[in-house]
């Protein structure tokens, strides 16, 4: 449906997008992820023909956006970062204008009604866009993109500025649309991308840093099996710590064990890393039963999208910082230190996304 | 093109620009009509038209100032430029909307002709000739205004720059006359002579005044239409360039 080949965009000396290539199939929901200024919006503006590329090719449904712009554009519904709304028009007037502008052939009345119902803007149809709240403006922007039922929808940060309820509504809507449209949406909000998209492209500094499903990306980034254990020893002293560490080290397939902080009185956390192929949870459990220790917590530290994102977009800097001044092997240290940062970030985000889920459930 | 034309026509009247333009045009043309035609006891409406050149010069930028600058500022141009329409139809939709409003304003002379008819006989050839001349002059000026509007994001900058540009065109005759062709070496004289001739030949004022003196000059009409086409073409290039830069 969409084919992008070696896309490059330069603004003077600044290379905004540097050799991006990807394909998006029919009915796929693709998420563009990247920090601010990574080139997401630039790429989307090029996809929709608002700006041209310095070099490279974009095919929308087989039509080249530069060679045959009208054919290509008629396949696209675009919601830019700032919705292109005429604030002096009413919602109805504006949608009728966009209907005419896109030369829509569908029945005007029923098509617009369908879109208004879908975006839940029927109740503000008669109001001036100037007087609408940010959330409603965003929805009118989305409604505008849906006019003429284009097979490709390109949405630049569709949920920015919305309240949590509206975010969930828009996400549900996008998922629904994804069933019979090809959707590309961008965001720097990770749970959003994770919740909505089949496939993720992470863009950093104008290049594609990762491309695949969240799981695929995670697999490529890591090949270690890591977990955090909280084990209660028998004496509740620091002596426990050494005993447990040395016992854990003897287990089959263990690559690395490190005692972490004292989380409860006399009880420590242990970061354990094992070979990818070996599941050590049972062995750890058996060890503790034999020694009469108690496992108070076992947390697998699988990489979340958060971690992947951080590692891809900031990994180099984090690596460089930890390599200086520490004696242990560079790779392990960097992972540990990162892990320390990441766990914190992850915990925060998990609570956020779980509260989102709860709200979703309530509705 | 139709959609953009209708939207712009609507926007003229929701923003109030349309009312301001129509009322100021009617007021000033009414004053000139009273003093130039009724007051002097003549049935020829030409004096009013010759006074209106300056009014048109300052009013047209008000009409055109926001046509593209506001789109750019509010980022609504993203909606237009990513819609399946050609750049020409975007430019012409806006251009013809402004031209329509101008024609509506100008058509007030037909009301004045009723007043003339009360006191004497309307000189229709003169009236229609002047009407056509002002229409084509407006067509050229609007194209210039639209072009300048496409260069900036700021309405006021667009308005002031357009007024300045049109005012310079108005002064072109005086500037050309002030060139001292007789001085300097032969080559300098030749160059100065050429420049002066060029300035005279693109003078909007003298071409327009020809009509108010009762000369219907087809070449002037062609000149105004070409100017309109040229500046609309420039506007299209400005939009195109933004895509390519």
Estimated share of beta-strand residues of chain A: 25-35%
Strand order of the largest sheet of chain A: 6-7-8-3-9-10
* Strand count of chain B: 0
Q: What fraction, in percent, of the residue positions of chain A are helical?
A: 40-55%
Summing up helix and strand content along with how strands pair, one would put the structural category of chain B as mainly alpha
Structural class of chain A: alpha/beta
What radius of gyration of chain A results from the CA coordinates? 25 Å
Number of helices of chain A: 12
Give a short overview.
The complex is a heterodimer of chains A (363) and B (245). Chain A is of the alpha/beta class and 363 residues long.
Keywords, separated by commas or semicolons:
heterodimer, A: 363 residues, alpha/beta, Rossmann fold, Alpha-Beta Plaits, four-stranded antiparallel β-sheet, 12 helices, elongated, disordered C terminus, B: 245 residues, mainly alpha, 0% strand
Explain this structure:
- The complex is a heterodimer of chains A (363) and B (245).
- By secondary structure, chain A is α/β, with parallel strands linked by helices.
- Chain A has two domains: 2-219, P-loop containing nucleotide triphosphate hydrolases (Rossmann fold, 3-Layer(aba) Sandwich); 223-300, Alpha-Beta Plaits, CATH 3.30.70.
- Chain A has helices at 40-47, 69-73, 91-101, 108-119, 134-146, 164-177, 190-196, 214-221, 238-249, 281-291, 305-323, 330-362, and strands at 2-11, 14-24, 29-33, 55-60, 63-64, 76-79, 152-156, 182-187, 199-204, 207-212, 225-232, 254-264, 267-274, 294-300.
- Chain A has a six-stranded mixed beta sheet with strand order 6-7-8-3-9-10, with helices on both faces.
- In chain A, α4 (108-119) packs across α5 and α11 (305-323) packs antiparallel against α12.
- The longest helix of chain A has 33 residues, at 330-362.
- The two termini of chain A are 34 Å apart.
- With 245 residues, chain B is mainly α.
- Chain B has one domain (2-163, 221-244).
- Helices cover 82% and strands 0% of the residues of chain B.
- In chain B, α2 (17-38) runs antiparallel to α3 (46-64) and α8 (124-149) packs antiparallel against α11.
- Chain B is flat.
- Chain B starts with a helix and ends with a helix.
- The A-B interface holds A 45, 48-52, 69-71, 73-74, 76, 78, 80, 82, 84-89, 93, 97-98, 100-103, 144 and B 2-4, 6-7, 10-11, 14-15, 74-86, 242-245.
């Amino acid at each position: 449906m969409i084919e992008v080949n070696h896309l490059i965009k330069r603004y003077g000396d600044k290379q905004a997008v540097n050799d991006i290539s990807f394909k998006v199939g029919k009915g796929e929901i693709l998420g563009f992820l990247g920090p601010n200024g990574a080139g997401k919006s630039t790429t989307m503006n090029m996809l929709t023909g608002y700006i041209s590329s310095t070099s490279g090719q974009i095919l929308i449904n087989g039509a080249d956006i530069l060679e045959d712009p009208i054919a290509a554009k008629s396949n696209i519904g675009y919601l830019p970062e700032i919705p292109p709304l005429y604030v002096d028009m009413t919602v109805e007037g504006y949608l009728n204008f966009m209907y005419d502008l896109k030369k829509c052939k569908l029945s005007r009345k029923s098509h617009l009604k369908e879109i208004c119902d879908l975006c839940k803007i029927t109740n503000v149809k008669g109001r001036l866009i100037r007087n609408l709240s940010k959330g409603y403006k965003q929805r009118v922007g989305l409604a505008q993109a849906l006019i003429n039922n284009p097979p490709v929808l390109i949405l630049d940060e569709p949920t920015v500025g919305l309240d949590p309820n509206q975010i969930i509504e828009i996400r549900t809507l996008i998922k629904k649309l994804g069933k019979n449209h090809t959707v590309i949406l961008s965001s720097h909000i990770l749970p959003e991308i994770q919740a909505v998209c089949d496939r993720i492209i992470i863009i950093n500094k104008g290049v594609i840093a990762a491309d695949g499903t969240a799981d695929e990306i995670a697999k490529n980034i890591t090949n270690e099996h890591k977990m955090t254990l909280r084990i209660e020893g028998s004496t509740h002293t620091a002596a426990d710590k050494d005993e447990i560490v040395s016992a854990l080290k003897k287990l089959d397939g263990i690559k690395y064990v490190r005692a972490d902080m004292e989380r409860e009185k006399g009880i420590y956390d242990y970061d354990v890393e094992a070979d990818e192929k070996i599941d050590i949870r049972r062995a750890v459990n058996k060890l503790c039963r034999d020694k009469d220790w108690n496992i108070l917590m076992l947390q697998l530290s699988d990489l979340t999208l958060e971690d992947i994102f951080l590692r891809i977009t900031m990994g180099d800097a984090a690596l460089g910082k930890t390599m200086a001044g520490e004696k242990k092997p560079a790779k392990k240290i960097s992972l540990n230190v990162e892990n320390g940062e990441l766990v914190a970030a992850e915990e925060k985000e998990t609570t956020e996304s779980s509260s989102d889920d709860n709200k979703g459930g309530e509705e | 093109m139709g959609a953009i034309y209708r939207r712009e026509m609507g926007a003229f009247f929701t923003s109030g620009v349309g009312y301001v333009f129509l009322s100021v045009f009617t007021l000033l043309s009414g004053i000139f009509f009273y003093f130039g035609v009724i007051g002097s006891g003549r049935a020829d409406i030409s004096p009013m038209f010759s006074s209106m050149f300056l009014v048109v010069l300052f009013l047209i930028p008000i009409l055109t100032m926001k046509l593209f600058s506001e789109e750019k500022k509010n980022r609504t141009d993203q909606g237009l430029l990513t819609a399946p329409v050609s750049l020409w139809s975007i430019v012409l939709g806006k251009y013809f909307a402004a031209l329509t409003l101008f024609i509506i304003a100008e058509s007030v002379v037909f009301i004045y002709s009723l007043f003339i008819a009360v006191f004497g006989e309307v000189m229709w050839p003169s009236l229609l000739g002047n009407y056509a001349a002002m229409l084509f002059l407006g067509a050229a000026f609007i194209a210039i205004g639209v072009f300048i509007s496409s260069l900036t994001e700021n309405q006021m900058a667009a308005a002031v720059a357009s007024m300045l540009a049109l005012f310079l065109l108005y002064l072109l005759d005086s500037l050309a006359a002030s060139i001292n062709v007789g001085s300097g070496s032969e080559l300098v004289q030749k160059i100065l002579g050429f420049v002066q001739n060029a300035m005279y030949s693109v003078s909007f004022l003298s071409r327009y005044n020809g009509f108010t003196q009762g000369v219907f000059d087809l070449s002037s009409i062609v000149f105004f239409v070409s100017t309109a086409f040229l500046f609309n073409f420039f506007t299209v290039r400005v939009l195109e360039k933004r895509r390519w830069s």
